[in-house]
Design a protein that fits this description.
Mean pLDDT: 93
Number of helices: 10
Number of strands: 10
CATH superfamily of the largest domain: P-loop containing nucleotide triphosphate hydrolases
Strand order of the largest sheet: 6-7-8-3-9-10
CATH topology of the largest domain: Rossmann fold
Distance between the termini: 34 Å
CATH architecture of the largest domain: 3-Layer(aba) Sandwich
Number of domains: 2
Shape: globular
Largest sheet: 6 strands, mixed
CATH class of the largest domain: Alpha Beta
Length: 235
């Protein structure tokens, strides 16, 4: 479904990606691991059009997207949940969800999808008319994921969904992420600092260092890899 080939990208004079190559087949969860500054978030930003590659190619369903504008990439079926959630705090839960569907013109289906989001995250249904600013961190993360799902993506980019959340909430959210992937047949590219947690729900994984892929394998093999265990799993 997704293919990156030798992608380079920079923020001004600072090179963030140094020849990233990875693939995400249709269905399942692909985890991207690495230390701070390894290029994980920059990889997602390059895919979603927020960071323009200077070299290399990015293809989705066999079509190049590396020169497309972000809104066109969303229309093609890619949604991005950025680090830090970045919901519209001054708007209500319902208004945030409806904004996630801004590219759609199927009003009845939008209503059904909002109900579907509430089935995954019941607390959002309970607080549908509440200003998003008043939600807890975990609830805001649920809203960010729900808003992204409202675009009806085939590929979901998730950047650090556990950031700043209590462990019990993190486990709940990751369980829901796994359920969504299975029930919606949704491909998920997951960036997560908690490598153990990410690999527990992933099918395959890539390890990044200094903007390039240094290791890739099935999640099961990565969990047993001594270098990964020492560097990222803490044992």
């Amino acid at each position: 479904m997704l293919s990156l080939r030798n992608v380079h990208a920079a923020y001004g004079s600072v090179l963030a990606l140094r020849g990233i190559s990875l693939e995400a087949p249709e269905g399942g969860i692909i985890s991207v691991l690495g230390a701070n500054g390894a290029g994980k978030s920059s990889t997602l930003r390059a895919i979603s059009g927020l960071l323009r590659p200077s070299e290399g190619t990015i293809e989705f369903d066999g079509k190049p997207i590396d020169k497309m504008r972000p809104e066109k990439i969303v229309q093609m079926g890619i949604s991005h949940v950025p680090e830090g959630r970045q919901i519209f705090t001054e708007l209500t839960v319902m208004e945030n969800l409806r904004l996630g569907a801004y590219t759609r013109r199927d009003g009845d289906a939008v209503k059904r999808d909002i109900d579907r989001i509430f089935s995954y995250f019941p607390v959002l249904g309970e607080r549908a008319k509440q200003q998003a600013l008043l939600l807890s961190g975990g609830e805001q993360q649920m809203l960010a994921i729900g808003r992204a799902l409202m675009a009806k993506p085939r590929l979901l980019l998730l950047d650090e969904p556990s950031l700043g959340l209590a462990p019990i909430l993190v486990r709940e959210i990751f369980s829901i992420i796994k359920t969504i992937s299975e029930e919606e047949k949704l491909t998920i590219l997951l960036v997560e600092q908690d490598a153990s947690l990410a690999l527990s729900i992933a099918d395959y994984g890539y390890v990044l260092e200094s903007g390039t892929v240094v290791l890739e394998d099935t999640a099961e093999q990565l969990r047993g890899n001594e270098s990964v265990r020492r560097s990222y799993l803490g044992y």
